[in-house]
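Researcher: Watch the backbone:
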Amino acid sequence: MTTRAPRPAAIALATATVLAMSACGGGGFDEGSDPTGQASGPAELTILIGSSGPAETDAVTAAAQAWSEESGNTATVTAAQDLPQQLSQGFAAGSPPDVFYVSSDTVASYAENGSLEPYAGDLSNVDDFYPNLREAFTVDDQFYCAPKDFSTLSLIINTDSWAAAGLTDEDIPTSWDELSAVAEQLTTPDQVGLTTSTEYQRLGAFMAQAGGGLVTDGTATADSSENVEALEYVQSVVELGAWSFAADLDSGWAGEAFGNARAAMTIEGNWMIGAMSADYPDINYQVVPLPEGPAGAGTLTFTNCWGIAAQSDNIEAAKDLVEFLTSSEQQLEFASAFGVMPSVESAADQWRADNPDFVAFLDQADVAVAVPNQVGVSDVVADLNAQLEGLSSGDPQAILDSAQSNLEAIL
């Protein structure tokens, strides 16, 4: 699933699962499998996905069937109820799926314990993937698995609230100062100007705009002055009363608060397209790039790759399937079906033409950074998220100092 950034509990579970798999050392597989990774005769592939819903499951199933008909092989898709747990069980039993979703924040753990086949550098379309997406799935200079699609964060504006406040397109914020100003202007007794969650997966965009980040060139940089500046900015707008976190608006996530008109703006990803259409069709909205910070433009990206089990009997067929699934034509079909953006640059122009109201998501691809992918970072982020829940009245430096200590312990 690529539609929403992982929440802390999911991150912790995924990390624990991968660590549990490491105890298996990649073993427990059939010792009689072909060492070339290619079984004789037509391949029978199993695909395990973490689906966002029926639309994604149906689209991936249809694509697998189309590849099967074209290749003469068979590919069976299963939508996991709990992807990390089911992967863990499959590896422990020596029968993992041939192909499966892997998130960017867990790829290093899968690579370290030998679970992943490092095939992506051999694909014919390797140079078509966005460079930052290739980097997200590169471990020790090896490109392990092909990004299947991606999402970025943008600023989403309730256009009726915007007009009611007397704002026009000229007022769309392009800087932090402008964002806080319009958020304050949009705030009424019934509606706050801006809402987000407290997660790093949202607030980290401001770190990027300040020139910061949790890990830089393999070194922990969580306690940098840039990151402190970012969190202090967020805190200042909250103190103005112009920014409320989703939990403070009785909402499970910021999209819910925005959809229920409790907030005039939010910062979310392109999964909002489907959510707004399905759940809040009466809300008129506009998507614009995030404003720039002291260091310029920046946002976060969220992505999964098509992982191939290192001990699959059908590695060559699995690679052929992935090439089919990551072609620009197939990715555009996925985009139409369940709202993701293609991971290949060759599909960008057509995606823009098909989604003229949402181009801001794709236009920020070049300045989007992924959650760090070093082993153990997911646990650090989960702890950071727990501390960020108290950001409204907390000490940004202390919060980041704690994250720094945790990062230094694992890097």
